[in-house]
Request: fold
Amino acid sequence: MPVPAMAAATASSFCWEVFPPMPTCRVYCSPAYRDGHLFVVGGCGRAGLPLAAAEMLDVPSQTWLALPPLPTARAGAAAVAVGKQVLVVGGMDSRQSPLASVDVFNTDEGKWEPAAALAQPSMGVSAVERDGVVYALGGMGADTSPQALVRLYEPGTARWQPLPSMPTPCYGASAFLQGSKIFLLGGRQGKLPVTAFEAFDLETRSWTRYPSVPSRRAFAGCAVAEGCVFSLGGLQQPGPHNFYSRPHFVSTVEIFDLEQGAWSKLGRAVRMRDKRADFVAGCLGGRVVAAGGLGNQSFPLGSVEGFSPVRKRWEQLPAMPTGRCSCSSYQALSRLFVIGGVAQGPSGAVEALCLREGA
Reply:
């Protein structure tokens, strides 16, 4: 049984908890978590088409329950648990077009209902819940252009309220809460990775621009630990001075100190052990964690590594039971859930990195 981490754990303290596979194999699915239940909705199946499948894992009993299907099949949506509801926002339909529709699953009633739609179709929306309110940021529109839209959803009114737009339009950005601010890092504009790092103050409802990520990388990982933001790995894009070079996997580690408001200048010593992109990143046991993804091999990675902010070094952690890339993830109950993704095809694997009892 996993236990909460009270201090930085040793590498030998980590282990993997393997859950029964999802009834539906999928990639680009949308997870949400509430009261010991992991909800997994939508995604793409073996045929490459968006799914309406919705399933719930009871974490303590390790059993899956099939839920009524989504009213609208979708992949790449944002899913957020708020109160007794699971909100599923936007995404892509079977025609590969962004969706404006929003579906709500009422956990007490066990059924789906339509909610107020977004003002514009959006896929790749970043969503955050705070104090019973959902914030939806950015996305890609029907014309494939990145959006700067910021929208607030209150379950009590069941309406979307517009908020001040993002300084940099993008989709697929990493979003996280720190105090009264929502931070947005990276994302994409078409095929180009975004280096913007910005924060929305929920109290003043205003945006602040921070120094951009030093290097331009697609499919990088993001984690927050010890008051710092970590931008990890990815697929390095050619810059203005090396236009003819090809994109390549990197082990880059760039750290932003939220208190000092600056990116640290780091040497090769703190780079990840493996070059990787499209992987799962998180913070567990006082360590920044990078798991799976794609590298220079012809198959998805199963390697896992952890970085100690105190020791300033990476150590190898137990390998994933199922090596995968393009996974969805969720962190709860001192577990880092790794959900679905691609192994030799869409995967049904659900595994969680955690700490051994007594660690």
Notes: The two ends are 11 Å apart (CA to CA). The chain has one domain: 11-355. Residues 1-6 have pLDDT under 50 and may be disordered. The longest strand covers residues 14-19.
